[in-house]
Amino acid sequence: MKLGIVGLPNVGKSTMFNSITKAGAECANYPFCTIEPNVGVVPVPDERLDNLTKMYNPKKTTHAVIEFVDIAGLVKGASKGEGLGNKFLSHIREVDAICEVVRCFENSNVVHVDGNIDPIRDIETINLELIFADIETINKRLEKAKKNLKADKSYQTEIDLLNRMKEKLESGISARSIELNDDEKEIIKDMFLLTIKPILYIANISEEQIEDAENDENVKKVKEYAIKENAEVIPLCVKLEEELSSLNDYDKKEMLEAIGIDECGLDKVIKKSYDLLGLMSFLTAGEPEVRAWTIKKGTKAPQAAGKIHSDIERGFIKAEVISYDDLINEGSMIAAKEKGLVRSEGKEYIMKDGDIVLFKFNV
């Protein structure tokens, strides 16, 4: 699963990417520094794995991972090929969700591509270019559907849907804000619309804004805008996060305590991004390995087993399941079994986040 980091030039995208991945993506104070996207795979922070590792002392601990893609800065006219528009749009098409960095800080030493700070203008610059690209995609599909209608009247349903979506897009409403039923989602699934992708806004603030970030005027504006799209906003001082990412765990903890923050902001971004993609983790625990396995929310037990190995899914018999909280509260699997907290679940069981599982199978 990929999450694309986007934003106008010089808003802190590549700095945030560096902080998240420590991959050393090039970062400079001029537009289009990032041309080809940088890609980094990062572990999803999960204290449950840390606690299970203490309990089992395994040879190996493996976190779930998420892939971040640092995409080139966008300018007005991208949908018409301005700047690096065509590349930008093609790179966004390849990711599963969008993380949009919005500049909410003043700094005369860091130039803004439009000359001054205006987070809503910046958001709309990007969103409108994505909307224009989606309208073009819908127009092409409409043309094709109208030709097919002559031979097959069932295409009228698709034409009606596309016209409704086009009308909304032309009024500046993203596809993700349009209510669609399951059949309608199926019709447009292969269109890969850009504005239907889930989005998370990162309000990039200065160190001076951290203490009262929730009441900052620019952050409030971003939050008000995000409500319309059922999106979330995380205020983040990207510059500080870059400093934190270079520290060891002890120094990082001390610095966070000094600032009065209980969790690294980037950990929140990574966790929220995982959630944004509709993902969750089930866990396996034992002496060889403690591991988090990534699945879509709503996955049934046999398909979850298939994440470990296709043979386990094919020969699935049952899943022995205990919740993470129950295991930690009892202190051991033996104690949990004695209290009847380990359940036997069949093929229709829908996995829950934090389930600790042992799959029984026969092939």
Total number of beta strands:
12
The computed structural class is alpha/beta
Largest sheet: 6 strands, mixed
Report the sheet-strand fraction: 15-25%
Q: H/E order of the elements?
A: EHEHEEHEHHHEHEHHHEEHHEHHEE
The number of helical runs is 14
Q: What is the arithmetic mean of pLDDT?
A: 87
Unreliable spans are 23-35
Write down the overall geometry: flat
| Strands side by side in the biggest sheet | 2-4-1-5-6-7
Helix content: 40-55%
Radius of gyration using CA atoms only: 23 Å
What would you say this structure looks like, in words?
It is a single chain. With 363 residues, the chain is of the alpha/beta class. The chain is 41% helix and 20% strand. The protein is built from 14 helices and twelve strands. The protein has helices at 13-21, 47-56, 85-93, 119-149, 155-170, 182-188, 217-227, 238-245, 249-259, 265-276, 301-308, 310-314, 324-330, 333-338; strands at residues 2-6, 38-43, 60-62, 65-70, 97-103, 199-204, 232-236, 279-285, 289-296, 316-323, 343-345, 355-361. A six-stranded mixed beta sheet has the order 2-4-1-5-6-7, sandwiched between helices. The chain is flat. The model is unreliable at 23-35 (pLDDT under 50).
